[in-house]
Amino acid sequence: MKRSLRTGLFLALGMALITGAMFLSGACSQKGKSNPTDSTHLCIGVMPSIDYLPIAVAEQQGFFTHPIEIVRFASPMERDAALQTGSVDASVTDYMGAILLHSRGLKVSLPIACQGGFRLVFGRNKELDEISDLRSKHIGLSSNTLIDYATERALVDAKGKPLPYTRVEVQKIPIRLEMLSSGELDAAILPEPFATIGASKGLVAIAVPNGLTVGITGFLFQDEALTKKSAAVKAFIEGYNKAVAYMAQHPRQDWSAAVEQLLGVSKDLASQIPLPTYIEVTAPKAEDLQPILSWMKAKKLVPESYTAEGLIRPIIAE
């Protein structure tokens, strides 16, 4: 009964986060698809995260001159399917997801890097508070994802030797957090705001070592959208850059309402979330893709011959 209640509470939390960003969005069209003939607006698919906070601030401050529609998805599979079917013009995704779609022949480009946040969160066992404690423990993850990659690279001993651990497959992030709180998992890497939510409930959250989750997400665009919706893309970049400048020049309390509304969290919790230093629109660095690509090749997720050439496509607002 207790587990059922906890699960219900965390699922409700997940739904709140999914709903939180919808203040920016509407249906991309009556049929839920981006309209390629309408060059005036962009439709962007996202999952709950802080990666695209500048969009929320830009919307709050009225920096966008063209409509930006945000569609929230509950899983990477749903988000990626929407991009493949043309339901969205772009999506906020991690580099592994971008590489997978590009390697399969989808005509997409990764022109804009995001700044996000992840932390390693420990379960209820009070004896666990550092990586060396996780030897032979139960770790929550989703196979063949960026979290799988980061977990494998993070859980090593002082000499860099991999620690043995039991993999526990948990696709949904809210459920992963619930299992940490209930003691069913010993640790898991969670994105923000979920890591902060866990910390607010008494769980220990630490930085992921070696910058493994720094510089790993970006906006993945359909090539067609970049070409046919160039005016909307330009307006998006200009509004995004204005928001980044505004956030840098004003104290957090001036734009914290955007954090609360975007994530569907309380004012107190919103103030606790560690945020990255957001930067103006810039292309991802090719060197940031290489460790991920090498890992994917070792796991046979992409062909050995695949190089990711053409995936990064820098664009600037003129």
Automatic annotation (TrEMBL):
The keyword GTP-binding does not apply. One of its GO terms (cellular component) is periplasmic space. The keyword Nucleotide-binding does not apply. Keywords: Lipoprotein, Signal. It is found in: Periplasm. InterPro entries: SsuA/THI5. It comes from the Bacteria. It holds the Pfam family NMT1. Residues 51-253 form the SsuA/THI5-like domain. Belongs to the bacterial solute-binding protein SsuA/TauA family. PANTHER family: ALIPHATIC SULFONATES-BINDING PROTEIN-RELATED, TAURINE-BINDING PERIPLASMIC PROTEIN. This is NLPA lipoprotein. The lineage of its organism: Bacteria, Pseudomonadati, Bacteroidota, Bacteroidia, Bacteroidales.
